[in-house]
Amino acid sequence: MAIKKSELYSSLWASCDELRGGMDASQYKDYVLVMLFVKYISDRYSGEKFSPIVIPKGASFQDMIALKGKKTIGDDINKKILGPIGEANQISDFPDFNDVNKLGSGQDMVDKLTNLIGIFENPALNFSNNRADGDDILGDAYEYLMRHFATESGKSKGQFYTPSEVSRIMAKVIGVSASNRSDITAYDPTAGSGSLLLKVADEAGKKLTLYGQEMDVATASLARMNMILHDNPSALIRQGNTLSNPLFLSDKGSLKQFDYFVSNPPFSFKSWSNGVDPVNDPYERFKNFGIPPSKNGDFAFLLHAVRSLKSTGKGAIILPHGVLFRGNAEAEIRKNLIQKGYIKGIIGLPANLFYGTGIPACILVIDKEKAETRQELFIIDASKGFIKDGNKNRLREQDIHKIVDIFNKQIELPKYSRRVPVSEIREKEYNLNIPRYIDSQEEEDIQDIEAHLQGGIPKSDIDALHSYWEICPGLSYSLFVEDRKGYMKLKIPKEEIKKTIFANPEFLEFGKRVGTIFSKWKEEYLEFCKSIGKTTKPKLFIQELSESLLDTFSSIPLLDKYDVYQHLMTHWLESMQDDVYLIVEDGWKVGTEIETELDKKGKILRQDGKLIPKSIIGRIFFQEELSHIEILESERDTLVQKLEELEEEQGGEEGLLAECKTEKDSLSPKLALARLKTIHSDPDAKEEKHAIETYLQFADKESESNRKIKNAEKELETKILAKYKSLKTEEIKTLVVEEKWFRQLSEDVQSEQNRISQRLTGRIQELAERYETPVKDILSEVESLESKVNSHLEKMGFVWK
End of a domain among 120, 150, 180? Predict the structure, then answer.
């Protein structure tokens, strides 16, 4: 039985809880990822002839299971499992599984490691069929873990990971997918955990030869494991200082050159020159460019990467914004890079994306091909496209797609992107600070003094809404009439603006047009979605579906196609991808399955469809029962309202129900009965008795109503759960594709249409209110009020001066 991706992620993350103790994330990630590594290679390569990974006898995950509960479990994992695997595959620096300072001592260590092994022992975590074409569930689980580890590691220890969103942009803008050669090489001189290189391999869609060097010993080991986990066991990852001791050299001792490079070096690395002789650099990295400042290594890493590229090579590097405008030696290097034509473009990113720092960064795209003829740079300011994610910012799917589209197609977009001639850059003394070339600031909403003095809405403000009038040319005539030259006034009461817009025939026609376009797209892709099967590759599936939706909405004015695209991608990430992976693994029959959540005592807490939520089954097959429950709820709500009214009228300190309230100031039937018994024979308490009896009648009816609702809901749930078993394949396909996926997307498209009308309504109301009362009317009103006040003061014997 398949496991949902989200369930896989949560079960792996649960393994971290077994180890946290006194360790921070940068430490316990090593233990969890090593366990994942051993589990994966055991599932993937055990018994396979000519395997690129050797699993020595007695060193598989099954052998690790046999160590559970043993007093020597930590030492045994080191010596019997990791030691042989490391020697056989040239992987060193595994974490110490017998470290009492991190894992505890005695039974504490035994329990932790036993529980950790138990989590990976889950039969659903079977990686024997893990695919290498970008669809591997393991690779995404790894990304999930790395993001969480980096988030919890803090600024000082989160640099081992480049956010996958940024990695994807870099892989796509260097053009690796366009190459038809089979001997492509890609290099990362500051490889970290290897995520950047793997994104390049994914983007290429074919096997590349990957090379990486990483200074940190433990992180280099992690990168080697990462390559194997992502089915790139032949990747060459070496440990060492790239600048002082580069380990990838040609036969002649010069730097080996590659087709592509990607890099996320440590920002402004202060000790980059340790062990480096920049003046007499044997690798000629600084020749014809200049020597970077001794206390800032940003350009040192960039020049190393540039020197490591072939004459037609391309690459991308993440650097702080300072490299774009800092002066002195760095200004000279920047000037020489631009003059040689090596910089193809710059992508300015939002602040607070990276785990090692909160400062904004940029991607420099390097391209040596046709460098001699390059006369312009393409610059993007993408600093405003992101979403908050905890204490970090994160690029959304729409932000990634927009950046890649705009850069690769070199599209100029106001306030976002520009082709900047080198001549203009020369005039600005080779300063590449993005705001010098792209003004991304929102236009100031200028106040019109004449309109404030005499009233009327400036025609220029109305004309600025031209994108709306192009779609609905008659709408402006329904809303405005000329007041005087250059100024308009509302033709209708301010309160009717929204109603007028929504009722406008042209606006209604625009809405129908959007609905028709979406319906045609939906009909075109219904069969595509219903044909998901064993051979479907989920990532290629969503790529085709989302690209088609993006293309469909690319020509509709007012609607941002990337907003519509984001709705689909959000839905994909939240539930759709789980659905598709389940269908691929188990077939559409998984739609008949029910998930049951139990408490610790085995009592059922919750039951729901594994693929199809109960809410959909109820809505489609049990409308009558749902309507009955709605009627019961309406009756109950009426009773609740009457009880609230009674409490408001008689529940105060002097009210007839005052003695029926608890210490928390709420009416209690128990207290009401007790009070009724106390005053039963009191002839002076008739009104109080009547009020209490009325309250108890309503309270009894409410209780009975709640009982009926609960019974009806229970009966409905029983019918729904029974219905799953009888669902036919075609019914399941319709319920999933049309009722779960497309219904939600249709509502999302409608919400985008609503936003259009809300923006227009809001702007017109804002303008109307801004100039509604001219200054002369305000002064006149002030004068009138002042006169009235003075008159009242005089009558009281006061004179205001």
Answer: 150
